[in-house]
Design a protein that fits this description.
By secondary structure, the protein is of the alpha/beta class. It is built from 15 helices and twelve strands. Helix 5 crosses helix 15.
Length: 397
């Protein structure tokens, strides 16, 4: 055979073999993405909620547990070196029958806390949660309905379906300024698609599609960005506190009220829906403003790396988002507690309010301070029988 014929024959044989492999993998349903195994390696805290409830909302699967070093496990899965959290302790995360961080035998409670990852706090032991410490400080039973990757619409549905018991009197809504507005927009869009039939409201795990294409697997391996590329460096800034210099990860940049536009109007409607539910059930509603690292570290000196994302390198002054939200809350008779001042004070001590490397959430010390601030305000208002807030200049608008 000539060289040309040999090359052609080899090419045809390769294409036949490749096509046979592609067909075989798809017929047997082989999953190149290894979704199940990959999901098991992800600490529960970092997973999206997948179990449907209500008209368009999601929670975690019930009665589950995960044991390991939470932040280290997630960082190693992404591809970071384990050196970043050398002293992290192994913990066990237990979730109740509805998929929340509560004791299995909790049947009645006076206070329920709703929110996203800053309420769930799956990087901390159960006893260190803001909700657990709040219960201890006030000597009242507290239920935690925190779920990562959720906004106010999903959280309101959680309250309605899982949060109201015979003795429930108080609802604490934790607002995180980093991504709660964005999450609300995504939830609103999902609700619209489900209502119009453009998307199904299904169990995202039970109904997941396997990636059984050999071609797709090769394309992903060659062209898809790696997890490290997506998440970026484990640290991107240097913090100075006295003579101490510490590397940390700067993440969100909180916007100001002038940038909210239609999202602000949409958020007002969502707050009103939550407030209406509480009024109908005769529940007192509280809002805890949870700041980002950028806000609580602003009073300290820090420098952002020159190769950090552009929005992080741009000058930033603390925005008026806390004042804007406080005004919305006052107009709807919602008690407002800003955790920012207490966390700033904590960062002047030997402790830090947030995890420094990679993770954006509260440290054990930060959770303690938030619980203490909230408990002090709640005790004061409950004992006085009325709010102790001072008037805002903007209240006259």
């Amino acid at each position: 055979m000539t060289r040309r014929r040999k090359t052609l024959f080899s090419l045809i044989a390769f294409l036949f073999f490749y096509g046979l492999c592609e067909l075989t993998f798809q017929l047997i349903g082989f999953d190149f993405s290894q979704t199940t195994r990959d999901l098991e390696s992800v600490p529960t805290f970092y997973r999206i909620p997948t179990t449907p409830f209500g008209e368009a909302y999601y929670r975690r699967p019930g009665s589950t547990s995960w044991t390991g070093k939470v932040v280290t496990a997630q960082m190693q899965r992404i591809g970071y070196d384990a050196k970043w959290f050398p002293n992290e302790q192994e913990i066990t995360l237990q979730y109740d029958q509805a998929g929340f961080r509560n004791p299995a035998d909790l049947e009645d409670w006076e206070i329920v806390v709703i929110g996203d990852s800053f309420t769930e706090l799956g990087n901390l032991e159960y006893d260190d949660l803001v909700s657990t410490q709040l219960g201890s400080l006030m000597d009242r039973s507290v239920k935690n309905l925190g779920i990562s990757h959720t906004g106010i619409l999903n959280q309101t549905a959680c309250l309605e379906h899982f949060g109201i018991a015979k003795s429930t009197k108080h609802v604490v809504w934790v607002f995180f300024e980093g991504n709660d507005l964005q999450d609300m927009v995504l939830e609103s869009q999902r609700l619209s698609r489900i209502e119009t039939g453009a998307r199904g409201h299904v169990d995202l795990i039970a109904n997941r599609k396997t990636q059984s294409s050999l071609t797709g697997a090769i394309q992903n391996a060659l062209f898809a960005p790696s997890r490290l590329e997506i998440y970026g460096p484990a640290v991107n800034a240097t913090l100075s506190r006295g003579s101490e210099s510490v590397r940390f990860k700067l993440d969100y940049t909180p916007v100001g009220s002038e940038m909210l536009g239609p999202v602000g109007d949409q958020f007002r409607v969502a707050i009103e829906k939550l407030a209406d539910l509480c009024r109908q059930r005769e529940l007192k509603l509280w809002c805890v403003y949870m700041p980002t690292k950028r806000r609580v570290f602003h009073s300290l000196r820090y420098e952002v790396d020159t190769d950090a994302t552009l929005h992080l390198r741009q000058p930033w002054q603390p925005s008026d988002l806390p004042q804007w939200l406080e005004l919305q809350c006052r107009q709807k008779q919602i008690e407002f507690v800003d955790a920012t001042p207490s966390l700033i004070e904590l960062n002047k001590s030997a402790e830090f309010s947030h995890n420094l490397v990679f993770d954006t959430h509260l440290s054990v010390a930060g959770a303690r301070v938030v619980a203490e601030s909230l408990a002090a305000k709640m005790q004061l208002v409950i004992e006085n029988g009325t709010s102790t807030r001072q008037p805002l200049k903007t209240d006259t608008k």
